[in-house]
Design a protein that fits this description.
This protein is mostly helical. It has one domain. The chain is built from twelve helices and no strands. Helix 3 crosses helix 8. The two termini are 23 Å apart.
């Protein structure tokens, strides 16, 4: 049984890293910076594959009621903000810096939970959150490839990620499984991004994209959509066999792996201070995982 859990974790890590690398390749190397189309395509294929898998009985999905879908719409709106702003930020930032900013979503989650429940935070958890926040604040000061728009979109991304994490925990009354939640997210995203494609100018811009008929571009887009769906399945599989603490550890290890491998795949202009910001941000995340584990004992 233990080796099956390890295989699930390794599979999740592999898909996680390849998925982020593929998205980074399309967004930064090919410079396809049209997020309404890129994320719309990904969510459309994800919804299609998820509904097909449910129809064939490959995954367990119950019929989603109208009331449950409506109650989940705030979460879907946060999901759209997450993927849209994340796409904008990732196209302008190196993967290690992107994850450093993304780690600060824990600060947003803790602040929201603090406001809702008014509970005192453990000193170790407070320390870990402060380390991640200080690392994120200092990163723009030392980033050799500083891009203001990239950091603005990253703030929007981490805010949506942190708020969505809290919404998932607080909205247990809907009784929706992770796959059912994601199905609603996908369908809502396709609708909203399709409506926004023309007003945002992405539709007209994509028609002038130089790699529009490139084989590499088509393969990258198809791979990104399929990998996004596989990452969803790998995440659900991981959660079904492990506790939330162990899932957090696998996510942490996956991010560290992506950070260590990204300099060998993509060109990055980095320096010692920016590396220290990345390092301490993930030390803070490791402390957060440890504090959450201690609180469960």
């Amino acid at each position: 049984m233990q080796w099956k859990r390890q295989i699930s974790g390794c599979t999740f890590s592999f898909v996680f890293v390849v998925s982020y690398f593929t998205n980074k390749f399309v967004l930064s190397v090919l410079k396809f910076t049209y997020p309404t189309l890129f994320q719309g395509w990904q969510t459309f294929i994800g919804a299609l594959l998820l509904l097909l898998a449910g129809k064939l009985g490959w995954v367990e999905m119950s019929r989603i009621t109208r009331s449950a879908a409506l109650s989940w719409l705030p979460g879907s709106l946060l999901f759209v903000g997450n993927i849209y702003a994340g796409s904008r930020a990732l196209s302008r930032m190196n993967i290690p810096f992107f994850f450093t900013l993304q780690n600060s979503s824990h600060v947003v989650s803790c602040v929201i939970l603090r406001i809702i429940h008014k509970e005192k935070m453990q000193w170790l958890k407070c320390l870990s959150v402060c380390v991640m926040l200080v690392s994120a604040i200092n990163l723009p000061l030392y980033d050799p490839q500083y891009n203001l728009n990239g950091y603005v979109w990253a703030i929007g991304h981490l805010s949506c990620v942190g708020a969505y994490r809290v919404f998932q925990v607080q909205n247990k009354s809907s009784h929706l499984s992770d796959l059912e939640q994601q199905c609603i997210n996908y369908l809502f995203s396709v609708l909203l991004l399709a409506i926004a494609a023309h007003p945002s100018g992405d539709l007209l811009g994509a028609l002038e994209f130089p790699f529009l008929w490139s084989y590499t571009f088509h393969c990258g887009c198809c791979a990104s959509a399929v990998l996004g769906f596989l990452l969803l399945l790998a995440t659900v599989r991981l959660k079904s066999g492990l506790s939330l603490e162990h899932c957090g550890i696998w996510t942490f290890l996956s991010k560290v792996t992506a950070i260590c491998l990204s300099p060998f795949i993509f060109y990055m202009d980095i320096n010692a201070p920016s590396i220290m910001c990345v390092f301490f941000s993930h030390v803070g995340e490791a402390l957060l995982l440890y504090s959450e584990r201690e609180s469960q004992l």
